[in-house]
Amino acid sequence: MDKTTSKDELLMLKTVKLSEIKTNPNNPRTIRDDKFSKLVESIKEFPEMLNERPIVVNSDMIVLGGNMRLRACKEAGLKEVPVAIVDWSEDKQRQFIIKDNVGFGEWDWDELANTWDAEELKDWGVDVPVFGEDAELNDLSEQMQPTFRIEISCHDEEHQEKMYNKLIAEGYECRLLTL
């Protein structure tokens, strides 16, 4: 897999020893118990998927995307994994860490509260709860208003981006999902 590519700021795709990769100390995402066990089993059963979704690291070999997969690979007994080494600005790295994880796992709310900007997190698709004095611990079901949604299927990422930008420009609240 050791190939150099000229894609946007992607330095190279290659297979490296797990010992060369550093976990991200500011990773606000975690996976526990049953879900982690399922991830380990998934990797044991289908390690080839790692070739299609390599762990993303910066040029210092710090994980930007795939901390939990890295942990699961170690648990599964792998010695090497594919990585995509990227050369992104600090802002792009921070965005990627969040955007790559919006759909799965559990958030470490202490890490998010202490390291990330709540408005940025909301912009990137994270449902940030309200804690402290502003939070209601009672049953709020009577106060909830119905939410009406529409789902639009796009044929590719470019079409998705155009639709998103058009709807945002028209004042709609939108969230990007890739399923």
How does the SSE layout of this entry go?
Blueprint (H helix, E strand, L loop, with lengths): L2 E2 L5 E8 L11 E2 L2 H13 L3 H4 L2 E4 L4 E3 L1 H10 L3 E7 L3 H10 L6 E2 L1 H7 L2 H6 L33 H13 L10
Description:
The protein is an alpha+beta fold and 179 residues long. It has two domains: 3-133, Conserved hypothetical protein from pyrococcus furiosus pfu- 392566-001, ParB domain (Alpha-Beta Complex), CATH 3.90.1530.10; 139-169, no CATH class. It has helices spanning 33-45, 49-52, 67-76, 90-99, 109-115, 118-123, 157-169, and strands spanning 3-4, 10-17, 29-30, 55-58, 63-65, 80-86, 106-107. The protein has a five-stranded mixed beta sheet. β1 and β2 form a beta hairpin. The longest helix has 13 residues, at 33-45.
Largest sheet: 5 strands, mixed
What is the top-level CATH class of the largest domain?
Alpha Beta
Report the portion of residues in β strands: 15-25%
In the predicted model, the low-confidence regions spanning at least 5 consecutive residues are: 1-6
As a percent range, the share of helical residues equals 25-40%
Mean pLDDT score, rounded? Answer: 82
Quickly give the CATH architecture of the largest domain.
Alpha-Beta Complex
Cα radius of gyration in angstroms: 19 Å
Basic shape: globular
Order of helices and strands: EEEHHEEHEHEHHH
- Number of H- or I-type helical stretches: 7
Name the features.
single chain, 179 residues, alpha+beta, Conserved hypothetical protein from pyrococcus furiosus pfu- 392566-001, ParB domain, 2 domains, two-stranded antiparallel sheet, 7 helices, disordered N terminus
